[in-house]
Structures are given as C-alpha cells and as structure tokens.
Write a structure and sequence with these properties.
The complex is a heterodimer. Chain A is α+β, with helices and mostly antiparallel strands. Chain A has helices spanning 33-46, 118-127, 147-157, 164-168, 175-186, 195-208, 219-223, 231-244, and strands at residues 2-9, 18-26, 69-70, 73-74, 96-100, 109-111, 114-115. In chain A, a hairpin with a 2-residue loop joins strand 3 and strand 4 (73-74). Chain A is elongated and about 65 Å long. Chain B is globular, with a radius of gyration of 24 Å. Classes of the chains: A alpha+beta, B alpha+beta.
C-alpha cells in the first residue's frame, strides 16, 4: 500500500515552518507509524538529505517521548494509543496523512516534529513529589491503603507526560497533566502533609509556563493515551479551593 | 593485573554492616563541597542523584532524553522483588539471595547478591513512602505475584507499569532536588567521553543534542548509570536510544568490561513481523503466572489454536519442568522455545513463535479477573498484532532484553578506574549469567538508593573537594577526540544510513552470538564485524552538521560504538568455553540440551581491559568463590 505524507518541517523555534510532501511512500499495514518515519529517514539519509526530526524512545507507549498531530488528532486516530502504537493498518491505500508537531505556546518547536516539553518538568519541580529522605520510611505495610483508593491513585499515576492533552486542548491547557499528578499524590495517605501546598504551587507554575486555562472541553480526556479522566481536574479544583481557604485544609 | 573486589570476608549476614563501618565517611558539613556527576536517569541514576543530593552533595545529572522521566526503566512491566515475606510463604533474605545466585548460574559475587537481598526490603518501604501506588489487597496491604525462578511470591507490582511508577517516584525526588538547586539537570545531553586525570575519573565531555555544542564538565567523581547494550542486536525490547556509548567510552579510558557475553534473551516477546521492524515488544513474564506455553505436537500444524485439541498440544514447559512449569527462569524458557522451533513446531507462518495461552486461566478465573491482572498487556498485544489474547493465544518468541554484563565493579560499585562508578544495568555485578524476573528494578534501586550513596564517600573522603579545572590537558584531549570523531562521521558522505549498518550488525550478532553460540559461528562473526565496521567508515551517510541538532549524527555515533563493542562481545563468548545462564555454547550441553557449566575452568568473571586500538584487549579474571550456595547443575525439574 502507498500513502502520501505531508510532514511539518521547521528548522528551529524562531524559524518559519512549512509542510514537505512525500508522495507515494511504500508501506505495509503491519508497520508502525514511527517505522514508516524511520523508512522516510533512511531514504533521506541515503540521499544525503536531512532526516525528519522527531522524539521517540521506548516505542511501546510508556516513555511519553513520541507524539505528533496526525490528520488533526494528537497521536493520530484510535483510542488510547501513542503515536508509536499507531499502525498503518489504521489507514487506507492512497490516504494523505498530515503530520504536525504539538502546537502550544508552552511547547515551542525545537525542530520539525520535536517540541520542548520542559514546562512539564518544571510543574513537577514546583511540588509534584512527596518529600521523603532515603532510608527513613516505615514498613510499607504499616499504612494500609484501601484497594479502591490505591487503584484510583494508580489510574492518575499512569500519565506518561506526553503532552497530547495540551495539544488537544483549544486553550493549550495543562490541567489534565497537572491534575493527574496532584490526584495521584493527593489520594494517598503519604501525600497528605504536602497536599494543599502542592496543588497551589503546581497550578502557579502551570500558569507561569503560559498554558491556557481549562474551559471544560474535555478534548484532553479524548486524546489521552492512558485514558485519564477529567474527573481528576474536578479533584484538582476542589483541592485548589481548599488550599485557598486555609480553614478547609483537611 | 589484579582485580580487588573488596568484598568483605567473614559471615555474609553481617558483611554489609561491617563494610559500612570500615569505609570512610564524608563529614556532613563537607558533603556540599563535593560535586558528583551522574550520567543516566533511569532507576539507578535517578535514585542515586536524588539520594546524593539529599545527603548534601552537589550533583550534575545528564540524560539524552528530553526529560529524565523518560529513561528506559520506565518500560519495565512486571514488578520488583523484595524479601518481605508478606505472603508468609517461606521467603527470607537468604532465600532471595539463594534464588538469585542459583538463577544467575553461579557466576555472581555472593556478597553483592546477599547485600542486594538485604536492601530489597528497604526499597519497598521507601518507594511506598514516595507514593508509588503498588497493587494492594482489599484489606489495604500490599499484593504480590510470582515470577520465574522462585517458588515464593515476592514480586511487588503496579499493574503492568511497575518500572514507570518506580521511576516516577525517583524522578519526583530528583525534581525536588532540582528545585532546591542540589541537582543540576542536563537533559538532551549525551556523554561522549570520560576524562581521567592521574588515574582518576574527574569529569566528562558531552554533546548538547539541541545545539551540537561539545562541553567539558569537571567533578570529584563520576557515576555511570547508562543502562545495558541489548541494542547491539538491533532488534531488542530496549528503547531506540539505548546504547553502549558511555560504558564503551569508559572502557577505552581504562574501565574493565566484564562478561559482555552474558546477555538475556527474554522468552515472551511479540515475534518479528517483517523487515521494517524497528524494535520488539516484551510481554511481561508475569503472564506466565496464568498463561500456558505450548506448541502443536505435529510439526507444521498450522490450524488455528482453537481447532487443535488438547491431546495434540505439547505444553512443553510443564512436561519437561514439572516443578517450575511455565515459571522456569528466562534462559531455560527461551532455549526450550528455540528447541521447539528448531524441531519444526513454530506457530507463526514463515516465522518463529510459540503459543502463550490464557484459555484455561479465563475458564478458571473468569475474564474479569484475567483482565484485572493483565488487561493493559492484552491491550498492548492487540494494538500491535491486531489479535485479542482473550480470543486467541498470544504468539511469542524470545528477544534480546537485558544485559547482565557491563562495567566491572568492586563491592563499592567502583570500576577499575578510581572515582568512576557504574550502577544499575551498566555494571556487571549481581545477576551472574542470567537475571531473574523482577530483579532489574530491585538492583537499579538498591544501587542508587542504598549502596552507592554510602560507598562513594569512601573515595571522596580521600579527595580534595571541588575539582573544577576543565582546562586540564586531559579535558582538551578528550574534547579533541570527540570532535574528531564527529567530523569523521560527517565527512564520510557515503550512501547508507547508520540505521542500515545497525540492522546488519544486529543480524550478525543475533545469528552468531544470540540464543545459541558455537566456535565456528563466533569465528565468522569476528571476521564479519570488522569488515562491516570498515564499510561503515567508508560508506555511512550522515547528513547535516555537527554544530546543530542532528539525530542522524546521534544514531551514527552510537552505531560506531556498537560496531567496536560487538567484537569484544563475540570474543568473550568465544573464550568462555562453557554454557551458563544466558550464554549457551552448543558444544557444551547435556544430553537433554541443558546448559553445562565448567566450574573448574570458568568460575570467574571475565574482565576485558582495553590495551589500545592496535592491540588485542586483555582478558583478566575475577575468581568467584561460593561459600554459601554450592554450585550445582541448575534443575527446575
């Protein structure tokens, strides 16, 4: 089968970008989407032309490195998959596939499909942790945690930090990402002592990075490869209100 | 040359305590005067950087990914072992130690393994305190599952994403230390050389992958936590970026490389589907808790699995190894699969694979319970293959997954270069010739949280703090070499991509130095690899420049190092005239086709020392002694 690719090429954050056409690219349905880009690059390199830059590492949907907007959808068609888990069997012979980087003010383009997501790291640095000195912990079973609560924390914790939620949001908001981390730690007894400071600091940092506000479109949930729900945004908002009204901090 | 393991003599139960008492400590007020470089941010690197910073050291951390949270530890699925005995099923520190030494086919240092078992329990406590959402029972206590090579249930897990959750825990603490300025983080930065001054590691040379800038970094000690070299096979379960460059550079600067031929081929991966394939995907070993491995009794039987009646199926692991059944260790399971394929029992048309079947588990437990245990793995499988494991058995085949070999380290995790440490998969230490499932996470975190932060003090206490002279000639030399190599790669201007060479190298190494090896094949590989290397340096095409972001250049640099490393790997496999663990020499097997060790001749770690470009490397030994777990023919029957 053959597909026509339109790939965004952009030299750097300050340069103007444009689409480059790659007509009639030979593919097979079993191929993953990134393997198709590998083939494109192999051909470019063999001709001495610059390869398409894109992030990818684990190629099994867990490291969160890869991501691009494919025909308008972050990580392409299909539910609950990252770009590396997308396969060509999701497309038809003769399809034209448009591939663009995440587009958000807080994620400047580095080159081609690669963007700078270090804003996410700074949100975590602002408070996305539980302070615990190595060696000081009590026995792991000394604090029981109900299975349902542990499972819900796990649900939030599965976030891979890929940024699809930001790319999907009309406001380029990072609320789903931030709320997932806030909820993961806030649901656990170990996370209680820093719970309200954490949510306040992380939201402050999120705003400082230039992410937009949440206006409840829920596009983030639809795009999330781990199917993290907007219910965690509600939880973040509840914690944020409590954090702002000191006497509700319990 | 003589290798000093510095492993304490005397009773093994108190060895680590006595050692910690005997080594030097750095006064708490002086720690802030020392600067430590940690390269790599997987479980070992992140936990070490975080803990060193907590202790007061100044840490510079480097990773090639865009964020430290993306290191490949994140992909570990199944779990982490610890001798908690929460299941009351007879586990103990001693049993975990015993299982690990035996599982490693008696090629690991006993004292290291014992220490690993001891600190395993602290890891679970600490990670729980960090908010790692381990699976729990309804009563709120921690749940466990079983892994291969053990008769107890000691594996802690967070769905099929245990590595991710443990890494996010370590990353979060590192983030906290970044925020307070104790860790300086350098993402998208790749180590290209280690700087050794007066015999001690005093810094590194890196390339900023965004700008192409080559930079010098000085420190009082350097820690490599840069993972394994499984991508030498090209197709592996490792992430695309995993590479041997850091450890290979260290080797060329004087660090001994131990047991490179101890590579782990994981039995349960999704089989190769075509020439385009860029990597293989692991299906967690935990699936063997409930999945049953089988092939049709009749060779060439290509009927759909459901049409093959039980009487015509060979559940060969249960048949050959009734005691451990489907939970035999990885090396044993992989070789058994290979024997089945070699005798014509493949279940993949035109390819290689065996079944891993959940029909009986679904019948026994119900679909919901199976989905709760393995749902995300089933989804992952379906996404890749287009087939649902609820309806059809999985097709699986072994693939390169982990490397037990690595930089030789002593009991302090120090390489043969003073001040240069190697932790996690990058070192060779604890798994011998075969790693048991759920032990990589354990070792990475043991090294990073609980061992290195103490032992590095012994070296630092003897050093004048605050070394910062990047103008030293050794830095200039290293930088010049790095720049020359970059220029050379760019100037070939040939016709083939680096990836093409990597694929060809991988095929040679997989065919001749994969699951089964023999002298003839290894001899062939040792002729083909240098020839391919020569071809690489005359025909590789690396477009773009060095002074800029250039992923083609990054790939080419890594492949160039694999092309050198592969030769030492095959040499080690050729020299080790025995079979043990993941190293299977066809000349050395029992009549049933099991590995036959030669303890008289090979009860040692083989450590390769670089002796210059024109010279053969020297093979040095660390003799192993087994005072507690007496070497025997491993039996899982």
């Amino acid at each position: 089968m053959k597909v026509n690719l339109r790939i965004w090429r952009q030299k750097g954050p300050e340069s103007a970008g444009s689409f480059q056409d790659f007509p009639n690219v030979e593919v097979v349905p079993e191929m993953s989407f990134l393997e198709m880009l590998d083939e494109v690059n192999r051909a470019l390199e063999a001709k001495g032309q610059e390869a398409v830059t894109f992030d990818s590492d684990c190629r099994e949907g867990i490291c969160g490195s890869c991501g691009a907007v494919v025909n308008g959808d972050p990580h392409g068609p299909g539910k609950a998959n990252t770009l590396c888990q997308l396969h060509l069997r999701s497309f038809q012979d003769g399809d034209t596939i448009t591939i663009e980087p995440w587009r958000a003010k807080a994620f400047p383009v580095v080159r081609d499909l690669m963007v700078d997501r270090s804003a996410f790291d700074r949100i975590i640095q602002a408070g996305g942790y539980i302070t615990a000195r190595t060696g000081s912990a009590p026995d792991a079973n000394s604090v029981p945690i109900g299975k349902e609560r542990a499972d819900e924390a796990m649900e939030a914790a599965t976030c891979i930090g890929c940024g699809a939620c930001v790319a999907a949001c009309p406001n380029a908001s990072a609320m789903l990402f931030t709320s997932a981390k806030v909820s993961h730690l806030g649901l656990l007894p170990q996370g209680q002592p820093q719970r309200f400071d954490r949510v306040q600091k992380m939201v402050d940092q999120m705003d400082a990075e230039g992410f937009g506000g949440c206006t409840n479109h829920s596009e983030c949930e639809a795009a999330c490869p781990k199917e993290i729900g907007v219910k965690f945004i509600a939880r973040l908002n509840a914690d944020l209100i409590k954090a702002n009204l000191g006497n509700l901090r319990k | 040359m003589e290798l000093q393991s510095r492993a304490p003599d005397g009773p093994i139960e108190t060895a680590w305590d006595r050692h910690r008492q005997a080594i030097r400590l750095v006064n708490p007020a002086n720690k802030r005067k020392y600067h430590v470089i940690v390269v790599g941010t997987g479980l070992a690197g992140a936990s070490a950087a975080a803990t060193l910073a907590q202790l007061g050291y100044n840490v510079s951390s480097f990773c090639f990914q865009d964020s430290p949270r993306r290191a490949h530890s994140i992909a570990a699925q199944g779990g982490i072992n610890a001798a908690k005995n929460y299941q009351n099923d007879g586990d103990s520190v001693y049993r975990l130690f015993y299982d690990t030494v035996k599982g490693g086919d008696f090629r690991a240092r006993e004292q290291n393994v014992y220490r690993l078992s001891q600190v395993s329990v602290d890891i679970i406590d600490h990670c729980t305190a960090l908010g790692v959402p381990f699976a729990r029972e309804y009563g709120g206590l921690l749940a466990n599952r079983s892994f291969g090579g053990a008769l107890v249930s000691r594996t802690f897990y967070a769905r099929g994403q245990t590595g991710q959750q443990l890494l996010l825990g370590a990353y979060a603490t590192m983030a906290e230390q970044i925020a307070v300025g104790k860790v300086k983080m350098h993402p998208r930065t790749e180590l290209l050389d280690v700087v050794v001054i007066d015999g001690k590691a005093k810094g590194i040379v890196t390339r900023d992958l965004t700008t192409g800038r080559i930079e010098r970094w000085a420190a009082d000690a350097v820690v490599l936590a840069t993972g394994g070299y499984g991508n030498v096979f090209y197709l592996s379960t490792n992430a695309k970026g995993c590479n041997v460059t850091a450890t290979w550079r260290a080797y060329k600067r004087g660090a001994g490389f131990a047991n490179p031929c101890f590579t782990q081929i994981h039995p349960t991966c999704i089989p190769v589907m075509g020439d385009h394939q860029s990597k293989l995907t692991l299906m967690s070993e935990s699936l063997r808790n409930d999945g049953r491995v089988w092939v049709p009794k009749q060779p060439g039987d290509m009927r759909p699995a459901r049409d093959i009646p039980d009487a015509e199926r060979d559940y060969y692991l249960e048949r050959i190894y009734p005691t451990f059944g489907n939970l035999v260790p990885r090396d044993v399971a992989s070789r058994a699969a290979k024997r089945m394929i070699d005798s014509g029992h493949t279940v993949v048309k035109g390819g290689q694979g065996v079944f891993l079947d959940f029909r009986d588990a679904i019948k026994r437990l119900g679909r919901d319970v199976v989905a709760d245990r393995y749902g995300n793995l089933f989804d992952m499988y379906a996404q890749i293959t287009g087939e649902s494991p609820y309806e059809h058995p999985m097709k699986i085949y072994p693939a390169s997954h982990y490397t037990m070999g690595g930089l030789w380290v002593d009991y302090n995790l120090q390489t043969t270069v003073p001040g240069l440490y190697a932790i996690g998969e990058a070192n060779f230490s604890d798994h011998g010739a075969n790693r048991l499932g759920a032990s990589a996470l354990m070792q990475g975190l043991a090294d990073g949280y609980f061992v290195l932060p103490y032992t590095i003090g012994d070296f630092l206490a003897g050093e004048k703090p605050g070394f910062s002279d990047t103008t030293h000639a050794a830095f200039a030399d290293a930088e010049n070499e790095v720049k020359a190599k970059v220029d050379r790669l760019l100037s070939v201007k040939g016709k083939q991509s680096a990836d093409t060479f990597h694929r060809r190298l991988g095929k040679i190494v997989w065919d001749e130095c994969g699951m089964a090896r023999n002298a003839e094949g290894l001899g062939r590989a040792l002729e083909q690899i240098p020839a391919l290397r020569d071809e690489f340096w005359s025909d590789v095409s690396v477009p773009g420049t060095g002074a800029d972001l250039n992923q083609s250049l990054e790939r080419a640099g890594r492949v160039a190092d694999f092309l050198e490393f592969a030769e030492v790997l095959c040499k080690d496999a050729l020299t080790r005239e025995e079979s043990c663990g993941g190293h299977f020499r066809e000349e050395h097997q029992t009549v049933e086709g099991e590995a036959r060790r030669d303890d008289d001749a090979f009860s040692h770690g083989a450590v390769w020392m670089y002796r210059g470009q024109a010279q053969q490397p020297e093979r040095v030994r660390e003799e192993l002694s087994f005072r507690y777990v007496k070497p025997s023919q491993r039996s899982y029957k």
